From TrEMBL:
Molecular function, one GO term: N2-acetyl-L-ornithine:2-oxoglutarate 5-aminotransferase activity
Domain of life (superkingdom): Bacteria
Name listed for the protein in its UniProt record: Acetylornithine aminotransferase
Gene giving rise to this polypeptide: argD
InterPro entries recorded: Ac/SucOrn_transaminase_bac, AcOrn/SuccOrn_fam, Aminotrans_3, Aminotrans_3_PPA_site, Class-III_PLP-dep_AT, PyrdxlP-dep_Trfase, PyrdxlP-dep_Trfase_major, PyrdxlP-dep_Trfase_small
Phylogenetic classification of the source organism: Bacteria, Pseudomonadati, Pseudomonadota, Betaproteobacteria, Neisseriales
PROSITE patterns listed in its UniProt record: AA_TRANSFER_CLASS_3 (PS00600)
Entry keywords, A to Z: Amino-acid biosynthesis, Aminotransferase, Arginine biosynthesis, Cytoplasm, Pyridoxal phosphate, Transferase
Quaternary structure and partners: Homodimer.
General remark: May also have succinyldiaminopimelate aminotransferase activity, thus carrying out the corresponding step in lysine biosynthesis.
Length: 413
């Protein structure tokens, strides 16, 4: 008999590094979720930009079931057909010539950063080890990637941290010029900062990074873990910007919920990862690769990618309508279907309240810090679901403003 579990079970048995919602989703279809009590939610989060083709997509479910009946796992003393098919699809669809598979975005970034240092060691000697990244960046939770990410709150209490890292202001050309030099082995950047506030890079900034990396023989790494695989409206955001990195990392939407990450690069750079230099027990798992191959096949089509631009417009117009009525957003920004609404006035600093109130209104949203409501719906969300989600977001906004007003009036004069 299956044991009954609820939200209190989390507090009893799980390490307390998360603070999950009070409700527990148990099923999903498309852009809707249902919890243990049968309550329905519009999903504007996609598991933090993961389920970009929605929940229980029939084509993904079908190929997964087929692979489940064939082969689940092989060690890396072998390879497997799904991994090779996915690698070929990725190399045929991007600048890359070689692919390394991992289980997550953090592992893909770890591999990218290790490869950059190894490549510099092979070609320029042991002194070229500097890594330049951006303040407020997020590249994962391993000790290396969390140190490279420019958010001190995530490294507090974990010292000593890996060294020779330099964090510069995002979108600041002068800061980049001052920081990148002949001792730099790599520059890593998110084309759109996700956790840092849903901030798109300017084209000039990414072009300057490319120019400086070329000048100083450094590798340019694009972390597209969150914005990649169609969310920008291009298969990968580098295509939108017209700036090609040396290494690109992908995860999240790549598996639509199956754990998989990928590091893409050129043959010349990949050559530094000789046998034994890096590895992953589960990286390239046949189940995950089977699903990811179908994900890329579906998303890398004019229908889906053009649909992202259309849905972006619907979402942006909806947020602007809410703002015209309530005046709560200082800025609405983002790219494709990764959008951020910066709060102001009575609701400034209360992004988490939108998450909590959203649950009461049947809406799942995200935050990016304390002052940004982050939205990342499915790339194929039906217009009816998107508009219903916006309707619920407006109800959330009205409720929070009413509560803020009541709290203000209750304060002693």
């Amino acid at each position: 008999m299956t044991a009954q579990v609820n939200r209190h079970t989390f507090d009893e048995v799980m390490v307390p590094n998360y603070a999950p919602a009070a409700f527990i989703p148990v099923s999903g279809k498309g852009s809707r979720l249902w919890d243990q009590g049968g309550n329905e939610y519009i999903d504007f989060a996609s598991g933090i930009a993961v389920t970009s083709l929605g929940h229980l997509h029939p084509e993904l479910t079908a190929v997964l079931h087929e692979q489940v009946d064939r082969l689940w796992h092989l060690s890396n003393t072998f390879t497997n057909e799904p991994a090779l098919r996915l690698a070929r699809r990725l190399t045929e669809s991007t600048f890359a010539e070689k692919v390394f598979f991992s289980n997550s975005g953090a592992e893909a970034n770890e591999a990218a950063l290790k490869l950059a240092r190894r490549y510099a060691f092979d070609h320029f000697g042991g002194d070229k080890t500097g890594i330049v990244s951006c303040k407020q960046a997020f590249h994962g939770r391993t000790l290396f990637t969390v140190s490279v990410g420019g958010q001190p709150k995530y490294t507090e209490g974990f010292a000593p941290l890996p060294g020779n890292l330099n964090h510069i202001e995002f979108n600041n050309l002068a800061a980049a010029e001052a920081a990148i030099n002949d001792g730099t082995c790599a520059v890593i950047v998110e084309p759109v900062q996700g956790e840092g506030g849903v901030l798109p890079a300017t084209p000039e900034y990414l072009k300057k990074l490319r120019e400086l990396c070329d000048k100083h023989n450094a590798l340019l790494i694009f972390d597209e873990v969150q914005i990649g695989v169609g969310r920008s409206g291009s298969l990968f955001a580098y295509m939108h910007y017209g700036v090609t990195p040396d290494i690109l990392t992908s995860a999240k939407a790549l598996g639509n919920g199956m754990p998989i990450g990928a590091m893409l690069t050129t043959s010349k750079i990949a050559a530094s990862f000789v046998v034994g230099t890096h590895g992953s027990t589960y990286g390239g798992n046949p189940l995950a690769c089977t699903v990811a191959d179908k994900v890329i096949e579906i998303i890398n089509t004019p229908e889906v990618l053009q649909g992202v631009h259309k849905r972006h417009q619907w979402l942006k117009e909806g947020l602007e309508r809410i703002n015209a009525k309530y005046g709560v957003f200082k800025d609405v920004r983002g790219m494709g279907l990764l959008m951020g609404a910066e709060l102001q006035g009575e609701l400034q600093g209360k992004a988490k309240d939108f998450v909590n109130a959203g649950a009461r209104h049947g809406l799942v949203v995200l935050v990016a810090g304390t002052n940004i409501v982050r939205l990342a719906p499915s790339l194929v969300i039906p217009e009816t679901d998107l508009q219903e989600g916006l309707k619920r977001l407006e109800a959330v906004t009205a409720e929070l403003l009413e509560k803020a007003k009541a709290a203000k009036e209750a304060q002693p004069a």
